[in-house]
Amino acid sequence: MNTEVADITIIGAGPAGLFAAFQAGMLNITSNIIDKSSEVGGQCTALYPEKFIYDIPGHYKITAANFIVELKKQTDRFKPNYYLSQAVVDLSVSNNIWTATTSTGNKVLSKKIIIATGAGFFQPRKPPLENLREFEEKSIFYKITNIKSFNNEVVMIAGGGDSALDWTIELANITKKIYLVHRRVDFRGNPATLKKIEDFAQQGLVQLITPYQLQAISGSNGQLNSVTLKNSKNEYKTISVKKLLLFFGLEFNNKAMLNWTCQPSVEKSFITVDPSTQSTNIHGIFAIGDIATHSSKTKLIVTGFAEAVTACHSAYQQINQKKPVVQYSTVKIKNQHDVKQEA
């Protein structure tokens, strides 16, 4: 058992969690970060590392992977303690010291807790296709980690939401041929994206196949040869493709949280917070990012950043019984020894 008591333990190493550790450092309070994944970054790392993000201030566009690289570099300036590849299986408090017990047996101690788990452990929804596992991560994928591997390939994308539409647009100019399959005629996306899909279809860059669903896959040794589709009229199409991307959304759960000795109030997988402090119904526990909700919540990465600042300031005030003195990064970071090294 590690007997060192940090000021804050952050559960979740996605963007909000990482930025919370940075903000803790700005306030001269120490932090731990715990995450079930082996890498930091949450969904950015696990689901769409090569996808461009366009709503990060200061970046015209940046891939999710590079965004996380830069965010971790910023966070590591303050040297948080990382506990990766382990989930929090229990959370308890004694004499105002919180113990987060992990699935590997670690007992991580701190004065306050910030929950930043997103919507929880997530996994892609999978269609009921025979022999699906044989092709997974070989020629059937739920995310793109190497966009160059799709160069000059015949690709099919199945799904009707933002991920399916965005990746269709990203891949249209590099693939030999790309099909977009959806079980409905209408897609779900913002008007600008839908207009671009329509334009690409008219230009012959994308072939839309609606309303069809996946019926069967065929190939050998993990290499896909064709996909059979079916519509509501029992009409079939078999299309030769080499790679299939499945974007049917994600399944989330925070069931592990329900087994904690001390658990905040969870409603429909989300934790209700006071947005003025990000505090939960349990004193000493805060929640930020997608896991946190309130009546005016907007789920964006930048919202999670703002919530991280609020939660850290609230935690500081509870720990020190006074409001923190705001330090601007241009002053605080300038006085750190590593700035001289960077210069």
Automatic annotation (TrEMBL):
GO terms for molecular function: ferredoxin-NADP+ reductase activity. It catalyses: 2 reduced [2Fe-2S]-[ferredoxin] + NADP(+) + H(+) = 2 oxidized [2Fe-2S]-[ferredoxin] + NADPH. FAD binds at D35, Q43, Y48, V88, F122, D290, T330. Binds 1 FAD per subunit. InterPro entries: FAD/NAD-bd_sf, FAD/NAD-binding_dom, Fd--NADP_Rdtase_type_2, Ferredoxin-NADP_redctase_2. Residues 7-303 form the FAD/NAD(P)-binding domain. Gene3D superfamilies: FAD/NAD(P)-binding domain. Keywords: FAD, Flavoprotein, NADP, Oxidoreductase. Belongs to the ferredoxin--NADP reductase type 2 family. This is Ferredoxin--NADP reductase.
